[in-house]
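Q: Given only this backbone (238 positions), what sequence would you predict?
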């Protein structure tokens, strides 16, 4: 078990509680999943929150996630929220038995590769990432037709290892701090309506991070990813 100081445990639990209460106020129904994003933070921080009852954690880097998954309890529900590269699909799906979700599937090709690599293990939930802001540096599907094609494949008998969970987006920074209705989130809500209509689904939405998760919930998000507001500022990545 990764060790932590009582002082750090108290700090983390208090910070998490603040965010969890904000999520509860925004969603009294309790349907929203709060994912504590622990990238670049030590395993001991995760262990402290785990011991306080938290189970959903998000990581951005495959090798870091593999390392932490090997150190920490096997009933943690890991969410991979980083850029999904073809070269790291096998690492993620084969080396992390308790991988709960990949939130960044951005092509049919990668979905097929993940499904093939995961055979013989528990299914992984997947979110299909959509580029709602149109920014070139952001990954994601760029048309509803592409999403529908991928959804229909995930619904087919050819897919044996992935469970379609929903859609995900990372909106622009400008929208996240606007203080008004987030146009990027509204775009994903519209994509969901079109996909649900075409495929007979009722997809969850993963949108919202530290600066905008309350607004995201107001616009229909059922999964929010919060890191620095819980764990504090991150060190630079080596």
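A: Predicted residues:
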């Amino acid at each position: 078990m990764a060790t932590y100081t009582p002082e750090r445990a108290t700090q983390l639990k208090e910070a998490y509680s603040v965010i969890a209460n904000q999520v509860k106020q925004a969603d009294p129904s309790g349907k929203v999943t709060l994912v504590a994003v622990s990238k670049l933070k030590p395993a001991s921080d995760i262990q402290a929150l785990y011991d306080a009852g938290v189970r959903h954690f998000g990581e951005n880097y495959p090798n870091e996630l593999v390392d932490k998954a090997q150190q920490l309890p096997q009933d943690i529900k890991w969410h991979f929220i980083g850029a999904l590269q073809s070269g790291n699909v096998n690492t993620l799906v084969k080396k992390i038995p308790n991988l709960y979700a990949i939130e960044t599937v951005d092509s049919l090709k990668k979905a097929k590769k993940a499904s093939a690599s995961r055979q013989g293990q528990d299914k992984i939930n997947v979110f299909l990432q959509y580029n709602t802001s149109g920014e070139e540096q952001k990954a994601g599907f760029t048309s509803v037709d592409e999403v529908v094609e991928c959804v229909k494949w995930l619904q087919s008998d050819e897919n044996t290892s992935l469970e379609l969970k929903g859609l995900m987006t990372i909106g622009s920074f400008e929208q996240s701090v606007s203080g008004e209705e987030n146009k990027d989130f509204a775009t994903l809500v519209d994509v969901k309506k079109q996909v649900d209509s075409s495929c007979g689904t009722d997809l969850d939405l993963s949108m919202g991070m530290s600066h905008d998760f309350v607004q995201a919930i107001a616009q229909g998000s059922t999964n929010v990813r919060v890191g620095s507001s819980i764990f504090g500022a991150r060190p630079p990545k080596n």
